[in-house]
Each structure stands twice: as structure tokens, then as C-alpha cells.
Amino acid sequence: MLMAAVLLSAGPARAQLYETPARHAMLLDVGTGTILFSKDTDTPIPPASLAKLMTMEVVFHALKSGRLTLEDRFLVSENAWRTGGAVSGTSTMFAELNSEIALEDLIRGVIVQSANDGCIIIAEGIAGSEEAFAQLMNDRARAIGMTGSNFVNSTGLPADGQTVTIRDLVTLTQHMQRTYPEFYRYYSETEFTWNGIRQRNRNPLLRMDIGADGMKTGFTEASGYAIVGSVARSGRRMIVAMSGLDSERQRAEEARKMLDWGIRAFEPHSLFEAGEEIGNVRLYGGELATAPVRLAKPLTILMPLTGRDTMRAQIVFDGPVPAPVEAGDPIARLHIYFGDELAHEAELEAAQAVGKGPIHRQALDALLEMAIGWIRF
């Protein structure tokens, strides 16, 4: 089978309408699913404290399934105290050795204070060890569609083989917001006090009065300053993920600038109605040579106020599609591009049933496919 594409409309391929010094970045409009900006989103990078987002997903999943409660208490081991506590010189909630802490306080310590001791206490309490907990993190990552990331510990502290991608971080953020709204609220807390020590949330977006309610910052020598942020403003929700910035200040400025641009420089535009036929895909061995395709749901995306001529759309399918097909069968996808960057994709279904063709038609298609196959090879 060949991945085939049918061009619907096109403008000249151009560079993106926005520039950022971040080495890796993505901006997503959640409501329409439109990727407004994308830059090197699939390159594996060290997660630093952004790994804690995945740690919290495991915790929230266990809470939602009833395996844990917010009142459950976890023991502070010497390993957690020494590796992630005050003596470690890393981000900590100053948990006391051999004390017990309620899970809700640990959650707030990890989210607000980026507490490494809190992460290790949780990992050991749930799975017995960080290594076993990291396996839970990877299992959950695959379950929600994170295909390019691998976790080795719960904290994001440097470790061989521990990587994430910007695309996966956006996928994770969407999942957290959609699946755990009752727990996502912790990400908007601006400060938390534990063991008599008050610490402010390190997410600079929360202090900017721009509708920010999450999520996390990170830093490594290898990949620079990073952030995953989300805002709800002007009836829209935007998620930004960035890495490879030079300073805390640049991270804050670039994240805000990109979010502001996403809110102000785009407007919703209806492209297709539900059930509207938008093209055809080639069939193999059918009573018809092609089948019309349609969208099951109406499609609205965000369009730039300027530079709309950079938009193009393609019907993409593994083809030719073998007959028979039934009306409603998913047989293709619609890809929408701004310049060279994929901005949106949606499933296309067959608009009508097409049965198998007569034997001579199937034989002819087989010969044609064989000939084309040789040419392709």
C-alpha cells in the first residue's frame, strides 16, 4: 500500500508566521485542535522537572480509579529525604525524615514547590521504588498516546535514557485537563507552605494576569529553560510548550508572547459541515474506481488574520483502499497545513457504500497495482 494524498487547496509553502528563539515549541488551541505553531516538536530532550507532570498523571489516575485517596499517608524514607530533601540542594518541600505526609500535601508540594522529595515519597509509597514507579509512568504515557518519551525516575533529575518531546508534553497537558479537572486545579495555586516554609509557584505565567492556570517549568544544562503553560482567555484555551531558552526571564517572556499571539492573531473559521463530501479516494477491486469521503463532524479551525494564503489541505490515505467499504468506514484523513506545518488533522469516512467489483475489474486493478508497484519500487 502507498500513502497517497489528494490536494484540495494550496497556497505557496512559506515559513511560519511567528518566530521564537526557543529550540523546540508548540502552541495548541484546545477548542479546535489547531496547532498554531510547531518547531522541532518530536526531538527527544531531557525533561527536567517537566517529568513531574507524568508523575502527577500516575497519581491522578490512581485517585480517579479509587486505588488512592487524598488522605492516604506516605512515609518519608531516608532515600527520599537524602535524594530530594533539603540536604540534596534541589527543589524540595522540606519533608522531615521518617514523618508521614498526606497525599494531598505531597501533590501540592510537587506541583507548587516542584518538590523532588515529594516525588520520591510518592513513587516509593505507590510502587515500592522509583524504578518500579518509572515503569508505571511509561505504561501510562503509552496509554494516553505519548509515543516519543521515556521516564527513568519520578523527579526529572538527570538520568540516562530519560527523555520527552514537546509534542508529548502537549498531549499530556490536554489529557490532564480533560481527564482530571478536579485535580488540575492544583496547578493554579500560587504558593504552598510546608514545614513552616512558604514557597511560591515557579510558573511565571500565574503572576501575569493573562488567564494562566498551569502547568510547570524545568531547566537542564543540556536543553536550557523549558515551560508548559496553559491559559483560558477570551473564550479559548491555549497550551504552549517550549524548551531551549537561555534564561528564566526569556522563558517567561517568550511563553507569554506566544500565548498572546495565539489569542489575538487568529479567529475561528468553519471549513466544512458535517456530512459534506470533500473529495474522493481511489479504491482497489471495487465496483467504482473511487469513493467519496466526508467528515462525520463539522470542522472549525483557527485561521490567521494575515497569511491565510499559506493554508493548504490534503486528503491522505493508504491506497488504493480495498473494496468493499461501507458508508461511515474511516478510510482517510484530512490534513490542514499552514505553510509546511501540519496544523490540524481529522478522520474522513466513506460517504457511501461501495461493493466489490466484478472479477474482471478486480483483475484489472490487480494488474494496475502490480505495474504501479514496480514503478514505485
From TrEMBL:
| Entries under InterPro entries matching the protein | Beta-lactam/transpept-like, Peniciliin-bd_prot_C_sf, Peptidase_S11, Peptidase_S11_C, Peptidase_S11_C_sf, Peptidase_S11_N
What pathway does the annotation place this protein in?
Cell wall biogenesis; peptidoglycan biosynthesis
Residues binding substrate: K216
Q: Which SUPFAM superfamilies match?
A: beta-lactamase/transpeptidase-like, Penicillin-binding protein associated domain
Q: Does the keyword Secreted apply?
A: no
- Give the EC number(s) under which this enzyme is classified: 3.4.16.4
* Pfam family membership, one: PBP5_C
User: Which reaction is this enzyme known to catalyze?
Assistant: Preferential cleavage: (Ac)2-L-Lys-D-Ala-|-D-Ala. Also transpeptidation of peptidyl-alanyl moieties that are N-acyl substituents of D-alanine
Keywords linked to the UniProt accession: Carboxypeptidase, Cell shape, Cell wall biogenesis/degradation, Hydrolase, Peptidoglycan synthesis, Protease, Signal
Residues in the active site?
S49, K52, S114
* GO terms of biological process kind: cell wall organization; peptidoglycan biosynthetic process; proteolysis; regulation of cell shape
Q: Which PANTHER family does the annotation name? A: D-ALANYL-D-ALANINE CARBOXYPEPTIDASE (PTHR21581), TRAFFICKING PROTEIN PARTICLE COMPLEX SUBUNIT 12 (PTHR21581:SF6)
Role summary: Removes C-terminal D-alanyl residues from sugar-peptide cell wall precursors.
Protein name (Swiss-Prot/TrEMBL): serine-type D-Ala-D-Ala carboxypeptidase
Which organism is this protein's natural source?
A: Oceaniradius stylonematis
